[in-house]
Amino acid sequence: MTAYRIRHTASRFLIHLTLAGGSAFMLVPFFWLLSSSLKAPHEIFVFPPKWIPDPVRWANYREVFEVVAVLRYTANTMIITVFSTLGVIISSSMAAYSFARLRFKGRDIVFGLILSTVMLPYVVTMIPVYILFSRLGWIGTYLPLIVPDWFGGPITIFLLRQFFRTIPLELEDAARIDGASRPRIFAQIILPLARPALTVVLVLSLLHNWNDFLAPLIYLHKRDMFTLALGLNALQHFESGLDWTHYVMVLATLMVLPVIIIYFLAQRAFVEGIVLTGLKG
Amino acid sequence: MQSSPAQSTPAAQTDRGLRFFHRLSFEETFFGWLFIIPAVLGLLLFRLGPVFASFYLSFTKYEIITAPKWIGFANYTKLISDALWLRSIEVTLWYVSLFVPLSLTFAYAVALLMSRDVRGITSYRTLWYLPSVVPVVASATIWRWGLNPEFGPINYPLKLLGLPAPRWLTDPDWIVPSIVFIGLWGLGNSVLIFLASITSVPRTFYEAAEVDGANSWARFRHVTLPLTSSIIFYQLIVTVINSFQVFGVAYVLFVSNPSASSAGPDNAALFYVLYMFRNAFGYFRNGYASSMAWILFLVVMLLTIVLFYSQRRWVYYETEGGGS
């Protein structure tokens, strides 16, 4: 019995050790980022590395606004994020409701087709879509980054459809007997009930737009149109010698911070979103 | 899938068919289509249409200013003798062959540990997942300095212990492993998905196995593994598809503008999509780049099909075992 207990305790200890060690490994880069963002440039390039900046240079966070158009980049990113997210939620929830609740010929074929494009690599459609937008004269505007989201996303449609199917039919039937039209049932009964699923979609879309790099890189070329992702990339390549590394670190911190805050605020939605989009199949 | 005998009797079928037919109403058809108009347009304009368009473009010479000119297979034959394209394949395959097995085994192992009922598990989960939400540009930025051979925090302990400290992002042989390493930092996604599937294995299965005298290895091998194999399979496909499309990290770390002529020392970071991007948006060779896109598309599809066939041998679906 004691041998069993020793083994039991030892295995627990090992599990904790591995998970805690791993957690530390996951966190070190964040700590390193934050610490470098508070250093003077020459303090970053020292051996052995200094973990705690001394002196702490808060001024970096003031100065960065003078060397980079931080507010501009942030505003640009937010414009794209807000309008894309709005579009993907409206268009996907409408389609998802139709696929989940309305019966009509061809429904399942269309849904199957949409679902089959979930794994379609972005790079395959990238060039023709670019040509389409350049014919429309939209290159250099936010439209190519926003408009596609107003035409539904396969994953979001799938996710919302699964959720809509769990809403009891009786609620809808009662409203229909009272004479409510489809659009009203959708807007006033289904959508309010779907808040948990809509939160998941919201969080996934915010994250995607905030983090996106390839699409803005393709479509935005003027500096004052840049998103944070493009700005951070440009700061490293064009403006900085090594003596700007601390500003790079500040900008990276400023870009990561909102995401982390949203993650902690909406952790459940995050986890559900990952698991739901991951477990389909 | 075979339907059960009760459902396939002719009487039952007509009955169901009739009921379905009766319920189809004009109102539902009307709003049904109305609500999916945006999604259908999106499917045609931004997904299916472009797939066929890029197939067509891959047989043309098209440099934006002039109209596309049909040149048959010329793009494809040119690819075979394009040394940089071959290099990009080499780099990408090297990455895929490292990243796919490492990330899947690693994520699954971590998920197994996390599925144990240990204290503080929620905080572990939170912390492990955190890097997954970091924007790709930011994580490339972090690791550009984090992997710095002289001053970075990764080489520091290696040097202290007197271990060989690789010159991560400057040594051509270490560039792909470095990017694998950065990718493994963002492993949380797969861990969460595996964890969800492992914890959804019914407890009774383990209890039954224990009664039969199965030790922990046997329980893992004969309960956990088969019951989560469909998710392992799904994750395998997703990881393979994504690994073929590495772009952001490599671009931020090694490329400064769309037409930059190199990607790291010895082009060691010239990933497939990076080279394709350069041709499309640096040189505006849209036809040529489309042929690259289609080859990637075919390879990814082919791999998915092969994996789907192979899954019959090793993926277990509960329905086959007579479960509900």
Quick description:
By secondary structure, chain A is mostly helical.
Describe the structure.
- The complex is a heterodimer of chains A (281) and B (324).
- Chain A is an all-alpha fold and 281 residues long.
- Chain A folds into two domains: 2-61; 66-279, MetI-like fold (Orthogonal Bundle), CATH 1.10.3720.10.
- Chain A is built from 15 helices and no strands.
- Chain A has helices at 2-37, 41-44, 59-67, 70-101, 107-116, 122-135, 143-146, 154-164, 169-177, 182-193, 195-211, 214-219, 228-239, 245-265, 267-279.
- In chain A, helix 4 runs antiparallel to helix 11 (195-211).
- Chain A is globular and about 75 Å long.
- Chain A starts with a helix and ends with a helix.
- Chain B is an all-alpha fold and 324 residues long.
- Chain B folds into two domains: 5-45, no CATH class; 76-321, MetI-like fold (Orthogonal Bundle), CATH 1.10.3720.10.
- Helix content of chain B is 70%, strand content 1%.
- Chain B has helices at residues 5-8, 10-23, 26-57, 74-80, 83-115, 121-129, 136-146, 155-160, 172-185, 188-199, 203-211, 216-243, 248-254, 272-282, 286-314; strands at residues 60-61, 69-70.
- Chain B has a two-stranded antiparallel ribbon with strand order 1-2.
- In chain B, a hairpin with a 7-residue loop joins strand 1 and strand 2.
- In chain B, helix 5 runs antiparallel to helix 12 (216-243).
- The model of chain B is unreliable at 1-21 and 320-324 (pLDDT under 50).
- At the A-B interface, helix 1, helix 4, helix 5, helix 6 and helix 10 of A face helix 3, helix 5, helix 6, helix 7 and helix 10 of B.
